[in-house]
Design goal:
single chain, 744 residues, alpha/beta, 6-stranded mixed β-sheet, 21 helices, 32% helix
């Protein structure tokens, strides 16, 4: 009897190993390839795994090997290049291979055997109808459900690229909607359509070409001269310097050569405007990939990119794993942004993986930013990366003037100085637009009893609960807990409750009372939850309909508001004294980025920064010498202290409902690490995390630091399998974070 074939399978489970399975005899004529999906028995479950390779022999006795249930694909869904990237990533980030492969696959492929993409049906307002919206709503008065659905579709009918709602969206908003949809279709008040995965360019030949300046031309020519070889190009351009124009020119060159281009952006909110700009300027096909798409939409886009049906791929972090058969260029916009680092599960850095992918493909990669990370600047200094400077704004206008407002001894109006309110009034009178930045959602960070000092603490975290006035609720922004805001003190019963501090909601309310004739638009995670709401607010900001914009860091990244002449940063002091060694870098980047929203068109911009510490070296350096000088000084400080990028970090994080269980596991882990030669590696801990308790679990960690990356990874690759064998590991959750973005 012939021997059954044996396959090594990556199964999505938290074990640092692959599993051997038998290929049933009826698949003998089947050609199996690495990257094909198979359904396998795993304990009591039936899971979808990925074939790694076919092997001749297994360490498991033949009688104990289980058989694959079914082979799901006829060809590999993951290219050799992606497989190589994933295998490397699993080793480098010390993460279970099965979970790494699970992350790389679209959710649709994890849950469905059939790999054929299915497009999603949408419903939208039928604009061919001659009736006005008011007339339709009046007609539907006796059909309230139809009236509700029509109103929902009408509210969503805000932009051509994002019209309509699908079943998933309707299910989250309302119930029992299908009968109403059917009735509206019969009355021809709405229409049903399928949104294509691939977007086609609407470029017109009559568009006037953009005139590039010498710095842009130099950067483009240098990068284009290296398109047949790997190189990392850092496009270090001040805000408003025209980095996107350089991207467009490079893309046009690649598209002419029938190559694909992958563009990564840090936030979902940046994809619509960037996509529209590329569609208007380039004669090409585009797909967009981000988490706001449903599973079918995202898989359809992924499938189109993987089959070379789209030349331009724009996406967020996980798009780095999309197979692209004709990849010719990778662009990372806002390369410094922390959103490229996954903060849970498989904790990869998409920027770093993109650099490796470009190297494996022997193609160039462009890292664009007005505030490059210290890691990138260090690589420039060591001549690993090539830098291209864009030191002037594309419109040749001056950078905005930056001034500090000393808050000491000043009378404040909901956290805003009178000096700032006067400036806002002045800019509004001059037909300017105003942007106020405060990186704190809600109305106030906490409520406090004025009689006894009681505060609204989260019952599951070592943190206060934020007061959201409109909903009359307390929210914990760390664990997601919510409860009704109390009318009386829960300790002494007093009704003398104060809202301490300010968030975006409070600032919005205050400004609306000061400037009742001006539309104030708040842009944060709370105000943009509904589908299309972010795009709607951004369009009002671009048109000038919203005179004052109030928001969190969602506003600081990549947006171009031509009418904004005044930017105000309301609260910088908390970040000035953070325990995280990267905090000063993040603050400098944030201030520089948000400041760059001012004066991007004809009018000169102005930036005001409120602080109780105007003499702080970070603020003084930024104002008088700019981000580049700050970064050079910060890099020297890091090198003197032996901190990244002068060294390399990994953190073993552990959490448990019982503090003792987490401490015991880390004590055992530290003992294990000290059993081997770890010369050149420093271990700090076990220590409690900066926020010791979150979501009802106690959190502790061990930090490993070394100037020798190879030695650090040798220890990790030996250590992690040992940790799995510890009896104390069964009572806790633990994870390894290599190259952590922060120490929290």
């Amino acid at each position: 009897m012939p021997q059954q074939r044996i396959l090594k399978i990556a199964v999505p489970c938290p074990l640092y190993k692959t599993f051997d399975y038998l290929l049933p005899f009826f698949y003998d004529d089947t050609t199996v390839q690495a990257g094909m999906r198979v359904r396998v028995p795993f304990g009591r479950q039936k899971l979808v795994g990925i074939i790694i390779e076919e092997i001749q022999n297994s360490d498991v006795p033949p009688e104990k090997l289980k058989s694959i249930i079914s082979v799901l694909d006829s060809t590999s869904l993951l290219s050799k290049e992606i497989l190589k990237l994933l295998l490397w990533a699993a080793r480098y980030y010390v993460h279970p291979l099965g979970e790494v492969f699970q992350t790389a696959l679209p959710v649709y492929l994890r849950n469905n055997d059939d790999a054929a993409p299915l497009l999603t049906e949408f419903w939208r307002i039928n604009n061919t109808s001659s009736m006005t919206q008011d007339n339709v709503l009046q007609i539907l008065k006796r059909a309230p459900k139809q009236q509700q659905i029509y109103q929902l579709l009408s509210d969503n009918d805000i932009c051509e690229a994002d019209k309509g709602l699908d079943a998933d969206s309707l299910n989250t908003i309302t119930d029992n909607w299908r009968t109403a949809i059917k009735g509206l279709l019969e009355k021809q008040l709405i229409e049903q359509y399928v949104k294509p995965a691939v977007l086609l360019s609407d470029r017109t030949a009559s568009e006037r070409p953009i005139v590039l300046n010498n710095e842009q031309i130099s950067a483009i020519r240098t990068i284009e001269s290296h398109t047949q070889q790997h190189a990392v190009h850092v496009l270090n351009g001040i805000t408003g310097s025209g980095k996107t124009e350089v991207y467009l020119a490079l893309c046009e060159s690649m598209l002419t050569a029938s190559k694909q281009v992958l563009i990564l952006v840090p936030e979902i909110g940046l994809t619509p405007q960037l996509t529209q700009r590329f569609l208007e300027r380039l004669n090409t096909t585009v797909v967009v990939l981000h988490s706001a798409m449903n599973d079918r939409q995202r898989y359809a886009a992924w499938h189109a990119a993987a089959n070379n049906q789209a030349q331009l791929i724009i996406g967020t972090r996980s798009s780095i794993f999309t197979p692209l058969p004709q990849l010719g260029l990778i662009i990372i916009d806002e390369e410094h942004d922390g959103s490229y680092k996954q903060q849970d599960g498989f904790r990869y850095n998409a920027r770093d993986l993109a650099i490796l992918r470009a190297k494996n493909h022997n193609i160039p990669i462009v890292l664009g930013s007005a505030t490059p990370s210290l890691e990138s600047l260090n690589n420039i200094n060591e001549r690993r990366y090539e830098v291209h400077y864009l030191k002037q704004r594309a419109n040749k206008k001056q950078l905005p003037r930056i001034q500090l407002i000393n808050l000491c001894n000043q009378k404040l109006h909901e956290g805003m100085a009178e000096t700032l309110l006067d400036k806002i009034k002045q800019h509004l009178q001059q037909q300017g637009q105003v942007l106020l930045f405060i990186n704190r959602r809600g109305f106030a960070p906490l409520l406090m009893c004025h009689d006894c000092g009681w505060t609204t603490n989260c019952l599951r975290c070592d943190a206060h609960m934020t007061y959201h006035k409109r909903r009359k609720q307390l929210h914990c922004h760390h664990c997601g807990s919510q409860r009704a805001a109390p009318d009386n003190c829960e300790q002494c019963g007093s009704s003398n409750i104060l809202a301490i501090g300010a968030g975006t909601e409070r600032i919005e309310q205050c400004l609306q009372s000061y400037f009742p004739d001006i539309q104030v638009s708040r842009i944060d995670r709370d105000s943009t939850r509904n589908k299309g709401s972010l795009q709607d607010k951004l369009e009002k900001a671009h048109s000038g309909e919203s005179g004052i914009l109030v928001g969190t860091q969602m506003l600081a990244k990549g947006h171009d508001f031509p009418n904004v002449t005044l930017v105000a940063v309301l609260d910088t002091d908390q970040a000035l004294f953070s325990a995280d060694f990267r905090a000063s870098e993040h603050l400098a980047q944030l201030i520089t980025q948000v400041s760059g929203r001012a004066g991007r068109a004809e009018k000169i911009g102005e930036v005001l920064i409120q602080t109780h510490h105007p003499e702080h070296p970070l603020l003084q350096t930024l104002i008088h010498h700019g981000y580049q000088s700050f970064a050079e000084a910060a890099l020297k400080e890091r090198q003197a202290a032996g901190l990244p990028p002068a060294s390399h970090l990994a953190i073993l994080r552990c959490e448990s409902v019982e503090a003792r269980a987490a401490q015991t596991f880390l004590d055992h882990a530290a003992e294990q690490a000290h059993q081997v030669d770890n010369t050149g590696i420093e271990l700090f801990g076990p220590i409690s995390a900066p926020m010791e308790r979150r979501a009802g679990r106690y959190r502790y960690q061990i930090m490993l630091q070394s100037s020798d990356r190879k030695r650090l990874h040798q220890l990790l690759s030996w250590w992690v399998p040992q940790l799995q064998q510890l009896a104390s590991a069964r009572k806790v959750r633990w994870s390894i974070d290599v190259d952590p973005y922060d120490t929290f």
